[in-house]
Amino acid sequence: MPLPTTDLSAVDTRAPTGCSSLKLRQLSRRVSQLFDAEVSLAGLKTTQYSLLSHIVRLGPVRPGQLAAVMEMDASTLTRNLQPLVTQGWVRVGPGDDGRSRQVDATPAGRAMQAQARKAWHRAQQAFNERMGSERVARLHAAIDECLALLHEGDGASE
Hints:
Number of strands: 2
Order of helices and strands: HHHHEEHH
CATH architecture: Orthogonal Bundle
Distance between the termini: 35 Å
CATH superfamily: Winged helix-like DNA-binding domain superfamily/Winged helix DNA-binding domain
CATH topology: Arc Repressor Mutant, subunit A
Number of helices: 6
Strand content: 5-15%
Shape: globular
Low-confidence stretches: none
């Protein structure tokens, strides 16, 4: 059942209160808990599923490009890749020249991603039902707008 819509007309949107980082982390942790409950049934954490899905979709891909698309720094990407490499779901190999690297999903990784996608889909449907599809669409639009604004002037692009 969708949650009731908050009357935003009573909120002073000119003067936000509290810490935006804290509020975003609280939301992120709670949403991650909901998704992890489903995706873990397939044997992955939500973060691993997301990374594996990006690799399947983009691969073979340079680590720097993958990190940029996922909005993470290179050291975080390296740490997050390790369990996927250890499981045999991802390989990191040479790139186009001797200095570059490429990340790609193995056949086992593609199979794992396809299996976990079903669990992710169930989690997304449950989230949409709980929050209401319109609210989720507004949330996605607000996040996309915020990311674009945060990228302005920093030279980053997707």
